[in-house]
Amino acid sequence: MKQYLDLAQRIIDEGAWIANSRTGKRCLTLINADLTYDVAGNKFPIITTRKSYWKAAIAELLGYIRGYDNAAQFRALGTKTWDANANENTVWLANPVRKGADDMGRVYGVQGRAWLKPNGGTFDQLQKIVDDLSKGVDDRGEILSFYNPGEFDLGCLRPCMHTHTFSLLNNTLYLTSYQRSCDVPLGLNFNQIQVFTLLALMAQITGHKPGLAYHKIVNAHIYEDQLPLMRDVQLRREPFGSPSLIINPDIKSLKDLETWVTMDDFEVQGYQHHDPIQYPFSV
Question: How far apart are the C-alpha atoms of 161 and 35, rounded to whole Å?
Fold first, then answer.
């Protein structure tokens, strides 16, 4: 929680105003931010200075793990995070490859589970990583990447959180996650929750102890219409202590995550929070 608030304050104190052509808004912007999450100690990095909808964040992660490409699939899991980008992005709506309402195209989990090979086949990055780690193998290339520049025109949005690298030291699993762009008031807590949960899940299904998760952000920003709420409301609230994430121990494989797991298999214990804050969302 402190890392989140410190980053927001740092953007306000040190950030520069940059025009964003996609949204038509200005962003107060900072380059380079590093956050670390203690997954071993189960210090769940959830915002307490406003209500955080953590179930939607984990539902979105589960959709990525399953390789979903349609906003309706994400809604069925319990999150509406892809509704706007799939159905309100004017550039995507005009794209001839779009298959209709709720289609997201080849974004995020599609790349992670079905990266297109030159011969027309696909490569399942996540399955390869799970297979290696389950055998105690770290080939220093246990990398899950959603960033495929050759297919940007085939999806509604370039990935923000684009690469996850897993590292196995003895029996402890670590994660380093890279993010090119981060909407701090709205997106960052989703990203924090997902990085933490991804390491916890991967350690659990591959039979290892979770270690630390390292979250690296290149461009961290606050939109001009979000700034007053962050500066004058959220940063003036006193944070509560960190809660714990409880994951159903019966989740033991990637197949489990692909088939029967729901949000009922996750619980956050000891979560105290202030009232919600309705930050503007920029499509």
Answer: 14
